[in-house]
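Help needed: design a sequence for this.
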């Protein structure tokens, strides 16, 4: 694999290997060890949208591995695909840096970058998907459950980029995802079918959040208003009424249920403060594992050293 654009495109063995490297490096770095497999290498990080976790965790991961990053805001380069075509950006950057990470609105921007770049391209979130998040989520789930096979995840809310990558991850890792969304906000049928094609029956869409959580091992939610949808905010808040992950909904699930959220969390909207702060929450383990997964991903894609 040259690039990391969508979990759906990656062979399961490649994803499992990334998790094994994540676990190994997580232990290694925990005890203050360091290594330099990306010494002298540079990652260009292109961001069309804001970020806390992705930006900082990629930067820390590159530093850990002895490499460097260059943070690029679209306005620095006259817009991605505006001052010059995406394919030219890809080819020019490939002459300077050893990897490109991009967070963009259009998913086609990252696929176009990957097509023309001669260096690895990593999807750091598009309107369509968020594969680094979903892989960090699988790492987190593997840490909290002895056996992930057959685990039931209830995703409550918007059938968005995070939900889609989670569906693809469930298909590859043998978990079952039930998405509960209000009408008009479901995950598209094609993505559900793609997940179910990999693992029959692993993804389904319903409308009732109580039904979704009643036998769930994990309840997952994400914002109702993704980056770029700010002008729909009032309508979305009204349309998602009744879909908040609050204590009442959590009580409808088994007592041991774990709570996940990719963050940032909008307390009082898709999730209550009590649920974020509850002992069942593994939300900050998820955030931490972005670093551990991405360190492994960078090492795997950008290092020539056999690992
Ligand atoms: N979860 C996530 O990707 O967070 P950021 O938007 O802060 O990077
Ligand atoms: N669905 C959210 C995820 C943020 C990490 C968004 O795209 O804004």
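Sure. Designed sequence:
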């Amino acid at each position: 694999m040259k690039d990391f654009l969508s979990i759906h495109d990656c062979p399961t063995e490649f994803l499992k290997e990334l998790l094994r490297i994540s676990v190994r490096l997580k232990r290694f770095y925990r005890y203050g060890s360091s290594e330099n497999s990306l010494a002298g290498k540079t990652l260009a990080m292109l961001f069309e949208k804001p970020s806390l976790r992705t930006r900082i965790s990629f930067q820390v991961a590159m530093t850990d591995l002895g490499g460097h990053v260059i943070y690029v805001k679209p306005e620095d380069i006259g817009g991605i695909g505006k001052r010059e075509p995406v394919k030219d950006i890809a080819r020019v950057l490939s002459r300077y840096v050893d990897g490109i990470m991009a967070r963009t609105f259009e998913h086609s921007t990252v696929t176009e970058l990957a097509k023309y770049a001669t260096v690895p391209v990593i999807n750091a979130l598009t309107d369509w998907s968020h594969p680094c998040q979903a892989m960090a989520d699988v790492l987190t789930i593997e840490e909290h459950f002895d056996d992930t096979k057959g685990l039931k995840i209830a995703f409550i809310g918007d059938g968005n980029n995070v939900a889609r990558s989670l569906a693809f991850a469930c298909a590859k890792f043998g978990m079952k995802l039930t998405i509960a969304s209000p009408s008009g906000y479901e995950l598209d049928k094609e993505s559900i079918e793609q997940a179910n094609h990999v693992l029959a029956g692993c993804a389904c869409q319903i409308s009732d959040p109580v039904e979704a959580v009643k036998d769930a091992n994990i309840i997952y939610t994400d914002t109702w208003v993704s980056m770029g949808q700010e002008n729909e905010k009032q309508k979305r808040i009204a349309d998602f009424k009744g879909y908040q992950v609050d204590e009442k909904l959590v009580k409808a699930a088994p007592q041991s249920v774990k709570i996940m959220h990719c963050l940032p969390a909008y307390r009082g909207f898709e999730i209550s403060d009590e649920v974020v702060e509850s002992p069942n929450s593994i939300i900050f383990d998820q955030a931490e594992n972005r670093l551990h997964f991405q360190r492994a991903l960078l090492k795997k894609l950008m290092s020539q050293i056999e690992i």
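Residues 5 and 42 are 19 Å apart (CA to CA).
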